[in-house]
């Protein structure tokens, strides 16, 4: 069964893409080329391409503002969040050495590490620009809301890299890392629209809590797809997370499970040589046997249910669309 | 003869450091540690250290605001510019593979590339924070002023890296790169204080022009020090720019001089093997013989003189202090 993309994603893409393209066009030609490739607007040779990611975050920004019955769409905020998200993808791919994304070679593979780093830097700087250019009197508050999330993102990536080198990571530390790396920006995406239109703090806070829970569910799904997702669908190499000995949530759950399968996984992770293909599959199987796949799936569902409870009681269609988006995120296959 | 540090630099350091330390303390412990090391506040083992750079840019921000007879000091703007400057140092050191800065191993040597990149990212995000937190009604305008300079900085670094791979670079392209890499942020430092206190556009524009010319002189001095500076004083390895076949302004001037020395330099730069120590010294000598050291020194003086002409006619002591700072920049040995 394929998961059908909710129509709000296409709408968000159509609304936000022109703003993104406009600000990226401000960059010097070299840096612009890398960004346009990364966004999927152009191929490596500069010819036009169909375009990029799922626009989940922009859709959340636009929908969450609708729950506040805002008169205007916070398009600038939606674009700014997408710029920060893509800044982090560009840099993370360099740091993690990931070679493919969205079924294409990563930017650093095509243009080299320095160019990809500069492109990420540029997108981060543009995210401030795009927000502060908007006419909203709350633009500065929204910009600070976004830098808080950016700081969390950086903390999460720092922890993620640190975990690769450490033997012992507790489940609590791992969930904290997942929060920082993923949930913080989704929480920002779910609430920055409300900040940008000047919604009451109570509404901002409910949307932030919704986004945090949904973001956690999102990361848990990502972790599961990193272990059992179909590379043809995800666009990522099979078992890449295990190969890099990432301490994702299901892995840490298994490592700290006190089961025989967890102990075997620990042995494999402690091995000095790179894991063989057979060992990679065995490691994935140990995660499953430790009960960690089931636990992660249940935790996903629980987070999704909690997220829905936080949704503010705004216009019915907006809440319904946000719920639909939330469910899509948890059911997606890529 | 040693160059005495103008007292304004120490004052700027004392005013801005507490703000920098406060915002860096917001970061996660791993990233914070890297930033505190980079700023020279701590050693690699976490013990306190004496502290860092020359605070040229913060001093320019504070002094330029004085030329507008501003009631308040734009400390936030001074801190923000210093954060952007240090973001670029952290990232450039990774991209250029530079191993020492200010007589210490660079951050990526001590903490690894990913940690240094994340630290740079964090400083860039904090620069927005620190400006938008200030109570100035012009903070958002100042933040956009700063992102314009950041974009130029990125363009300059992209061009600098591109030049290393290219055979042909014109003097004009090279001067443009020097402008983007160095002069744009100095121009911002010289004018953002005026933006932050709401000075008239005419004053902002004069200060920006002053900073641009001074920034060009600054980069030309840097290029000369990169060739003939004393490594003991500069804290950089001898002839590092030639070793990396950087196309700095004096080098490009020599390469495009049409002299025999320029032709020999071209041969050396085209060689596929790394240059030997003898060849590095020969290359430096060819730059001198092509007349490019003299030309660069004259160009420096010309830029400095032009810079002074742009200075607005504000309070006498502020203009005098800015002039003193400008002269220090051009006479410095490190």
What does it look like?
- Chains A, B: GO terms for molecular function: transferase activity.
- Chains A, B: Keywords: Magnesium, Metal-binding, Transferase.
- Chains A, B: This is Family 2 encapsulin nanocompartment cargo protein polyprenyl transferase.
- Two copies of one chain form a homodimer.
- With 334 residues, chain A is an all-alpha fold.
- Chain A has a single domain, classed as Farnesyl Diphosphate Synthase, CATH 1.10.600.
- Helix content of chain A is 73%, strand content 1%.
- Chain A has 16 helices and two strands.
- A two-stranded antiparallel ribbon of chain A has the order 1-2.
- The radius of gyration of chain A is 20 Å and the shape is globular.
- The relative contact order of chain A is 0.12.
- The mean pLDDT of chain A is 92.
């Amino acid at each position: 069964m394929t998961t059908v993309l909710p129509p709000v994603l296409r709408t968000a893409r159509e609304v936000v893409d022109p703003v993104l393209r406009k600000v990226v066009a401000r960059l010097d030609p070299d840096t612009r080329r890398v960004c346009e490739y990364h966004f999927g607007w152009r191929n490596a040779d500069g010819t036009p391409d169909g375009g990029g990611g799922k626009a989940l975050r922009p859709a959340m920004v636009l929908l969450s503002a609708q729950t506040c019955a805002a008169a205007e769409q916070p398009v600038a905020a939606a674009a700014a969040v997408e710029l920060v998200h893509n800044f982090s993808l560009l840099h993370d791919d360099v740091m993690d050495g990931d070679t493919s994304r969205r079924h294409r070679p990563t930017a650093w593979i095509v243009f080299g590490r320095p160019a990809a780093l500069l492109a990420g830097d540029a997108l981060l700087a543009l995210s401030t620009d795009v927000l502060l250019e908007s006419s909203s009197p709350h633009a500065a508050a929204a910009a600070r809301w976004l830098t808080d999330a950016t700081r969390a993102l950086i903390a999460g990536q720092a922890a993620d890299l640190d975990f690769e080198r450490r033997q012992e990571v507790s489940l609590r530390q791992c969930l904290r890392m997942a929060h920082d790396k993923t949930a913080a920006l989704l929480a920002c995406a779910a609430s920055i629209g409300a900040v940008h239109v000047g919604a009451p703090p109570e509404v901002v806070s409910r949307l932030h809590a919704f986004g945090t829970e949904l973001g956690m569910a999102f990361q848990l799904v990502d972790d599961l797809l990193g272990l059992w997702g179909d590379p043809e669908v995800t666009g990522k190499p099979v078992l890449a997370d295990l190969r890099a000995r990432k301490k994702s949530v299901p892995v840490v759950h298994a490592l700290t499970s006190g089961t025989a399968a967890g102990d075997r996984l620990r042995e494999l992770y402690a091995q000095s040589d790179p894991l063989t293909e057979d060992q990679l599959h065995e490691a994935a199987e140990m995660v499953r046997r430790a009960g960690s796949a089931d636990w992660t799936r249940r935790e996903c569902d629980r987070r999704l249910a909690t997220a829905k409870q936080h949704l503010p009681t705004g216009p019915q269609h907006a809440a319904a669309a946000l719920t639909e988006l939330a469910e899509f995120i948890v059911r997606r296959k890529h």
